[in-house]
Amino acid sequence: MSNYKPLTCFKAYDVRGKLDEELNEEIAYRIGRATAQFLNANTVVVGFDSRATSADLAQSLGRGICHAGANVLDIGLAGTEEMYAAVSEFGACAGIEVTASHNPINYNGMKIVKQCSQPLKDQEFSKIKQLAEQNNFILSKHSGSVTDNRSAARNMYVEKIIGFVDLSSLQPLKIVINSGNGAAGPTIDALKQKLEEKNIKTNFVYLHHDPDPSFPNGIPNPMLEENRSATADAVIREEADFGVAFDGDFDRCFLFDHSGNFIPGEYVLGLLSKVFLGKEKGATIVHDPRVIWNTIDVVSKCGGFAVSSKTGHSFLKAAMRENNAIYGGEISAHHYFRDFAYCDSGMVPWLMIWELISKSNLLLSELISERKQLFPSSGEINFTVADPENCLEMVNSLFASRATSIDELDGLSMCFENWRFNLRKSNTEPFVRLNVETRGDEVLLEEVIKKFEKILKKV
Predict the structure, then answer these.
(1) CATH code for position 234
(2) Could you say which of 101, 117, 314, 413 is catalytic?
(3) Are 142 and 31 members of one domain?
(4) Integer Cα distance of 348 and 124 in angstroms
(5) Is the whole-model pTM more than 0.85?
(6) How confident is the model at residue 3 (pLDDT cuts 50, 70, 90)?
(7) Is 101 a catalytic residue?
(8) Pairwise pLDDT comparison (102 vs 399), residue with the higher score
(9) Which residues form the domain of 296?
C-alpha cells in the first residue's frame, strides 16, 4: 500500500536519523526492501554496530530484503569494513551496515553499497529513497532466506587485512587499543587469535574493549580533541609504543605516539603513501584537498603521482578507480586501499604502522617529526557563521589578488609563497572549516590563524 511520506533520514551519502522520529524498524524494513528491489539483488550482506537498536533494525532490514526476493548474508555485529569485505569477497549484489558511527546515542543509520562494494551514485541513492518513501513495492514471487555468515565472514576479513603486512617483521610492540565500546573489540579478538595461530607475538593493552550500547565512556569519536585523553593517558601509563583509537564502526582509526601525542591525519597519510610507494614504484596516491603539501612532497620524493579529490568517500573511491590508485587518504582518518575493493579500513592503517615501526626501529614520533617541521599545519578549525556561502565569497575577495593559485575543487583553497589555506562549508551545520599549512614556518602559521580568527568572527 502506498503511504508516501518524506524520509528525512536520507542524508547526502548515507542514512542517518533520530530514533523513532526519523528512523525505526518499519522504515528499516522499507529501506531493505527498496534497496534489494532497485538493485535487483540476489544476495545482500547485512551487518550492524553495537548500538542498542542496531540488531533489531538489521533484522527488519533483513525481512524487507527477503520480501523483495533476495537472500541475506548475516554477518552480525561487525564493522562497516567487514561488510565491504563480505560484499566483495562473497560476490554479493549489495551490502548494508546498520551504524550511526560517531553520532549521538539517540541516532542510528545505515551505510549502503552495491556490487563490488561500490558506493551508490546520487541518482541510485535517490531512487532507493523514493521507493522507500512510496512504500509501494513489487510483489516478489518468492521470499529470500537468511544465512548466518558471521564466522566465515570474520575469518575471511581478518585474513584479508593481515595480508597488507609482512607478518614475519612484526615485533611484539606494546599497543594500546581503544575500541570505544563500539564494534571493534570482537574483531580485535579475532585478529589477535589469528596472529597467534601464525606464531606472531602480540602485546595489546585493551581500553573500553567490550561493545556496550550505553557507551559509558562517551560516544567513540577520537576526531574530537576532548575524546583523546583516555587513549593518550593509557599510552603514557602503560609505557606503550603507540596507541590506536576507533570510532563506533571502526572504519577510522586514530593514532597516538609513545608520549600520548595525537598524530594528525596528514602525517599518517604521508607515512602510508611512502610505504605503498615502496611496494609499488610509480603508483598513484589520492588525497583530499584540505591539507596537501606534506602528502605531495612525500609522494613526489618517492617517485609517485599525487591526485587531489573532493572530500568524501564516494569521491575518493571514484578518483582511485579512475586512476588505479594503490592508496587514498583523507585527513579525517579515512584511508582507502585498492586491494580492499577501494574501500576504507580502520584496521589496515595501524597494522601497517606496526610493521613500519617494527622494521625501522624508530618511534612513531621520530617517523613524523621531520614532516611536521617541514609542513606544520593548524588542524581543522570550525567557525560558526551566519552565511557560509557569503563567508567564502568574502574571504575570496580579501585574498585572491595575492594568491599564486586558487582551487575550488572542494570549498576554497588558495596557495601563497609560503602558506596555504582551505576553507569549506559544513554540509549539515552553519560552520566553515579552516585548515592552514605553511612551509616550515610555525610563526607564520600562528599569524595566519589569528588573521582568520579576526576575519571570520566578524562574519
Answers:
(1) 3.40.120.10
(2) 101
(3) yes
(4) 29
(5) yes
(6) low
(7) yes
(8) 399
(9) 264-363
